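Encode chain A's predicted structure.
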Amino acid sequence: MRNILMTVMLLIVVVVMFSSIIMSPTTGTKAVIENKGTSINTEIGTLVTP
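Encoded structure for chain A:
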């Protein structure tokens, strides 16, 4: 029973860490990658158009 409880608690911690580190709308990894991608796409677009 104790092993199941520890497993469930660790899974909850992993889910909370994932949601706070990866999925944060302003400072999360996903937001940073999207912002960098948008800026790079804009730069590439300015290079292509004369």
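Residues 31 and 37 are 10 Å apart (CA to CA).
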